[in-house]
Specification:
Shape: extended
Number of helices: 4
Distance between the termini: 33 Å
Structural class: alpha+beta
Mean pLDDT: 84
Order of helices and strands: EHEEEHHH
Largest sheet: 2 strands, parallel
């Protein structure tokens, strides 16, 4: 994986964590390039396939979105990271502004 300066994040990423052969092969084909035209609140991914097809995706946190959609995304992320039950407990505690309940919910993930 190369930054646009041509240097890797670390000369030996395996020093921090082991990498499978598949991951190493993918990293050899990935370039991370800064684009001053993309706002700091946004990200853009461009994937060029060996078939010549180009896939693009972007997201900007500064763009307005309905609160219900934002909540849905956050709940899905919480469920993926914690578990559906714990994510709901955390959301309920935050909505109730109950620090004790929030602490209990987060400790249940240990």
């Amino acid at each position: 994986m190369f930054l646009d300066s041509g240097r890797t994040i670390d000369p030996e990423p395996e020093a921090y964590f082991p990498l499978s052969q598949a991951t190493q092969a993918m990293m050899a084909r990935v370039n991370v390039v800064a684009d001053d035209n993309v706002p700091e609140t946004a990200s853009e991914v461009i994937v060029s396939l060996t078939t010549g097809e180009t896939l693009r995706a972007s997201h900007d946190l500064a763009e307005p979105e309905p609160l219900s959609l934002r909540r849905e995304k956050l709940m899905a992320k919480g469920a993926d990271l914690l578990s559906p039950g714990v994510a709901q407990d955390v959301a309920d505690a935050i909505a109730a502004r109950n620090l004790s309940a929030l602490t209990r919910a987060l400790r249940s993930t240990d």
